[in-house]
């Protein structure tokens, strides 16, 4: 598990269109993890994590802003997925340095390619 922040989920890569389904509405701090089911983010003071299954996941990339938030040039992990007929991109801030985030991005891309 890695501590970080969930920045929200964009619809069709438009920062002003935020996905509000299945607990994805609220931004917040928490813990990011991965397992054989997919990607999970458990926000503080919640019991049910946000989950993106590997079968839904389409892409992983890094950027400097997401869902209207900017982290002063620090890396934001963007996970593209498809749910309920909608293309979505969830954003996570997990580290201030680019090197470990590039490593995580590569690991995610490998897992996505296998599914």
Map the helices and strands.
Elements: E1 2-11, E2 14-18, E3 28-34, E4 38-43, E5 50-53, E6 57-63, E7 65-66, E8 69-70, E9 76-83, E10 86-93, H1 98-114
Antiparallel strand pairs: 1-2, 1-3, 1-10, 3-4, 4-5, 6-9, 7-8, 9-10
Summed up:
15% of the residues lie in helices and 51% in strands.
What does the model show?
The chain has 115 residues and is mainly beta. It is 15% helix and 51% strand. The protein contains 1 helix and 10 strands; from the N terminus they run ββββββββββα. The protein has one helix spanning 98-114; strands at 2-11, 14-18, 28-34, 38-43, 50-53, 57-63, 65-66, 69-70, 76-83, 86-93. Strands 1, 2, 3, 4, 5, 6, 9 and 10 form an 8-stranded antiparallel sheet that branches. Strand 9 (76-83) and strand 10 (86-93) form a beta hairpin. The protein is globular. The mean pLDDT is 92.
Along the chain, the helix and strand elements come as EEEEEEEEEEH
Which regions are unreliable across 5 or more consecutive residues at pLDDT < 50? none
Query: End-to-end distance, in Å?
Result: 22 Å
The count of strands amounts to 10
Structural class by helix and strand composition: mainly beta
| Biggest sheet character | 8 strands, antiparallel
> How would you sum up the global shape?
globular
**Percentage of residues assigned to helices:** 10-25%
Query: Overall mean pLDDT score?
Result: 92
User: What's the multimeric state?
Assistant: single chain
Classify the beta-strand content into a percent band: over 45%
C-alpha-based Rg, rounded = 13 Å
Q: Number of helix segments?
A: 1
